[in-house]
Amino acid sequence: MTAAVATRGRESIRRIRAGPLFFLLPALVPVVLFSVLPLIEGIYLGFTDAKAGLNVDLAPNFLDNYIRLLSNDLFWQSFQIGIIWAVTTTFLQYVLGLGLSILMEQRLRFLWIVRILALVPWAIPPVIVAIMWRLVYQPDIGLLNQALRGVGIPIGELNWLADFNTAFPAVIVVGAWAGMAQTTVALTAGLKGIPIELHEAAASDGATAWQRFRHITWPQLRPVTDAIVSLNFIWNFNSFGLVYVLTEGGPGAKTMVPALFAYNEGFKYGHFGYAAAMGNVMVLVVLALLYIYLRSGRRGVE
Amino acid sequence: MKKHLRASIAVLVVAILTAACGSTTPSASPGASTAASPAAPVTLQFASFAWQKATVDAHNKIVSDWNAAHPNITVKIVTIDVNSVHDKLLTTFQGGTAADIVHDESADIGGFSGQGFLADLTPLIPAELKSDIPQGIWDTVTFGGKITGVPTILQTYSVFVNKKMLADAGVTLPTAASPWTWDKFSQVSKQLTTGDRFGVGWGLKSPAATVMSMSLNFDGKFFYNEGGKNVVKFGTAEQQVLKRIYDMAYADKSLSPTTLGQSGPEILPGFFAGKYAMIVGGNYVAQQMVEQAPAGFDWAMLPLLKGDTQAQSANPQTLSISTQSKNPKEAMQFIAYYMQANNLASVAIGDWLIPVSASAGKAVTTITGGKNSWDVNVASAPSLKIAPFQTLEAYAQWKTQIAQPGFQQYLANKIDLATLGTQLIDGWTKVGGK
Amino acid sequence: MIHRRSRQATALQYIALLGFIAFLSFPLLWMLSTSFKGPRELVALIPSLIPVSPTLENYGTAFGEQDLVQSASNSLRLSLGNAMLTVLVALPAAYGLARFASILRRLTMGWILVSQIFPLILIIIPLFLILKTLRLLDSLSGLLIVYLVWSLPFTLWMLQTYVKAIPIELEEAASIDGAGRLRILRSIILPLLAPGIVVAALFAFISGWNEFFFALVVLQSQEHFTLPLTLARFIGSEGVVRLGPLAAASLIATLPSLVFFAIIQRHLRSGLLAGGVKG
Predict the structure, then answer these.
(1) Cα distances (angstroms) measured from residue B78 to each of B53, B88, C62, C71, C230
(2) Quick check: B392 contacting A, CB < 8 Å?
(3) Considering only CB atoms, which chain C residues are within 8 Å of B94?
(4) Is the pLDDT of residue A37 over 60?
(5) Which chain A residues touch B428 with a CB distance below 8 Å?
């Protein structure tokens, strides 16, 4: 196509189009009503002294909550746990999901089994996932210890979820297991979007599988990777249902993730304003981290 | 082809939406009648978290009996998930859609009372009901001088034993008149520990509630009022229960340390398989004994352990009336009916918990014939009383943020008693306790 | 065949496959096994995979005690509705976001991020009050709208990514050839977006199927309960869980999703072009 023809094409598209608003309209009204408005209220509460109660007046106290938060070492402890938890779990989810999606593109028998099983973590209600893994980790009747004893490892009665050293890693494994499915699905769709001609051309040039992965698959997957890793990071950072059923944040607050901490503050003790302030801090920090991650990615590719 | 597909999708969407819309019930506001004429029909919403089949059946029977006898006052049960009671109640209270009669527990209603969501029941409670329940229990539902809940059933922490193992070792069981002291308990535990079994298994994954309650055995109150301010102390009285458990686990090695990190139900397989001669847990574990123990497993629940006394803190389930209810008088009439001896007894038996009123206690003994340790259960009731921490506003936060992790660390042998004490005392200031 | 694999590579791949199968399948096996065990067998110290004395009482309890069929039906309608509505709404919106750089796109991305990061539980009460004002409490349609709105961030983000992966030259070329906007969308964009649509539909379905907290807060009457709420009835307080009936009910709660997935997977494989971009 000559340059002139290309420009004419672009102009004709712009002329036909009805503007971005037209496409976004159906989504706009319910989103504003049921998401934007509550969010604005939630964020605003972080600058007030809102408390639970009948006909309780709330007054803005601007930055007081945040000043208090600065010296709340329990909050920052849980924040640290949250970051480590989110980073590790997201990483594991990605690695496992990528491995599985690539595996599913190969020519192997019995792939149909794993195609359905890949979605099992998604299909099972989260609280059931937590209860099952709790059983797996039990020191005496749990599947894990039984399997380890079966192959001769003297694991004794290690209580994975109660031992101060193993509780956090154990919970991370469950988090990775539970979140694998959406990563696998997103990456599978991404892999399918890579033109097979690219692989064919590279293979005929003598490229190995690893080289093809590094120079074709990986760059092509980058946008999907960025999206799913960011979303996973956010979801993992925010998840607490799983952790709550497994350990309730214990032992000794070793698995107290920030979302659980903020939930306790808001719902259990009724400090709505203070809890909302924690939410605001979480938003800022996570946004900053994502910005750094996405920025570095862009520089790397170009 | 695609056009047809899109059309059928559209039809399907509309069908689903209308089906979903069709099942919409507008949220009923609690108490639909005007307050003007007492003869006008009234509907009461009764939000309950009962989940045991027998308890749910008992509730259904109470409600249907009531509805039959009172055509003008209809009670409707609203089911609440037992593990989300606080969240659900808080949301409905703040949202203004609360039920008339609210089923909760005394440890939880303190917060709601302070927040103004629960009505003052003091003028409404009938005299016979008041005198049927010990004052010590009424104290647990009195906040700021007002009674905001009617107590119903409660639990104790009790020792369960494998009778055969004890008999084989020549150990005689305690009686209500002469219960075991902690010293005796510890000694028996050592005696029963052999190469392949422990004397005791104790599921203390979440130790705070157990420790705070049983410390009353030694009058370990933790919270003391000094000149109008509440402070935390960690003296000898408070250290007793914690230290004894610690010593049994690490010094005597008669208490399985693994169980310290497990929850109550999780240690049952070990108990039934003979890994522990005794276990300690809530008295409601008797249900598991009956339903899950292997055939021929001979068990018994012992009378409460004795320190200086057998006192434990009472945390009864409660029935409250929400401030937003339009029919508090009718609501209290239903509550009084619920609390009648046979009705309360059926609820207690369903939940495997002890009824608070003397008359219901008698009814339970009659209905069960005292079997499955119900006799011990009912006899334990008088030992339950209020502990100071139960009325403190910041207690919930101190318990979750400070006490729970602290106790877990101590029992896992990560910190010593002195460090724990400092954490507990400083922690109270940290959570803004006063 | 482009790839010639060594014997070793194939062996490694099969080992990996086996590993994944084991890692992912044990919960289903556990559910299956537990659902046929009676209460006494469930406290056995050494549990066996095959129940020693199998029983059907758990299924009887699951269906008899709670209205499992009603809840399953509620959940099914909710999830299918959510899947369809989300795709219908998100598809054009994602296209608009991907193709047109505008202030709206920045706002939308901002909203997507903030709505996902800000802890959901903290906005539950404002949301509750809005639903109450609109008389949408205790209704499945109210819940459906909430699910739709909260499925949008993920689906918008993902779909937008997939749209961006389609080179704009395709559309321009077709437009030069005289095709109208709608025609371009239907015959070029839509087929290429098929995998992305599948992702969106799966996500929305599952979100509706498994969601607990919103359902807990919004729904009140037992006839409106969704599956997660009914399952929770088998989980008692103080760690007491009625494992047998819970396993039975969970199996029943899991199978429809797996069937839905299997159906969609079939479409995923057959509805796709061999490659992506047509030269």
Answers:
(1) 15, 11, 20, 16, 13
(2) no
(3) 125, 128-129
(4) yes
(5) none
Contact B20 C139 (CB under 8 A): yes
Give residue for tokens 């098929």.
Answer: C194
How far does the CA of residue A172 sit from the closest CA of chain C (Å)? 15
Contact A74 B261 (CB under 8 A): no
Please give the structure tokens belonging to residue B287.
């249900």
Pick the residue of C91, C238, C242, C246 with the most B CBs within 10 A to test the interface with B by mutation: C238
Residue reference for tokens 């509750």: C128
**Is-contact A237 A279, C-beta < 8 A?**
no
- Measured distance CA(A130)–CA(A79) in Å, rounded: 22
CB-CB contact of B13 with C85 (8 Å)? yes
Q: B25 pLDDT exceeds 50?
A: no
Contact indicator for A35, A258 with CB cutoff of 8 Å? no
Chain A residue numbers with beta carbons less than 8 Å from the beta carbon of B410 are none
Sheet with B73-79, side-by-side order of all strands: B73-79, B42-48, B101-105, B317-321, B150-151
Ranges assigned E (strand) in B271-386: 276-282, 299-301, 312-313, 317-321, 354-355, 384-385
**What's the CA gap between B345 and B356, in Å, rounded?**
10
- Please choose, from the candidates A287, A232, A253, A286, the residue with its C-alpha nearest in 3D space to the C-alpha of residue A88: A232
ipTM of the complex: 0.83
Is A250 in contact with B408 (Cβ distance < 8 A)?
yes
CB contact under 8 Å between C129 and B95, yes or no, is: yes
CA distances from B424 to A163, B213, B226 (A): 22, 16, 17
pLDDT at B24: 39
Q: What residues contact residue B226 under an 8 Å CB cut-off, 6+ apart?
A: none
Task: Say if residue A251 is preceded by a cis peptide, omega within 30 of 0.
Answer: yes
Least confident among A42-56, A137-151, C90-104: C90-104
What is the pTM for the complete model shown?
0.86
Bridge partners (DSSP) listed for residue A60: A48
Cα dihedral across residues A8, A11, A16, A17: positive or negative: positive
